[in-house]
Fold:
Amino acid sequence: MGKRQSRRDAVRTLLRAGRMLDRVNTGLTPPQYRLLSLLADGTERSTALAQRLTVSKPAISAAVESLSAAGFVRRRSDESDRRITWLEITTDGETALAVADDALVRRLDEVLDELGDASAVLTALAALDEAMEKNREERRRARQA
Structure:
């Protein structure tokens, strides 16, 4: 199998894995899950979240609105600049995220258990995540230049 075909196969596998995880009943939509995951790392502005998730500001606004109505996200005005609104995950949001994480990990474990030793796959996925983050940051810097 050639390099190009193996890359196509990898893309298809990644997309299939994403669809598999998107179908897990977590109580959150995939965009809500991704948003809460980012907010779990700390308070953030919606503009920065839209950039990190590569979605439009209206899409972030809709997700924040639904998460806020559910009590999972809280908006807080910046004390030095009232035009800025910070988003933070609430205790209920942390609980919802933990429930979703557990459901997603259980589903992934069902597949990884087929491998016997999944450590190589998990190591490769961690490296892929690091490379994707580096690439995202490089692309962001190039757009600003």
Q: What stands out?
A: The chain has six helices and three strands. The beta strands are 44-45, 73-77, 85-89. The longest helix spans residues 119-144. The mean pLDDT is 89.
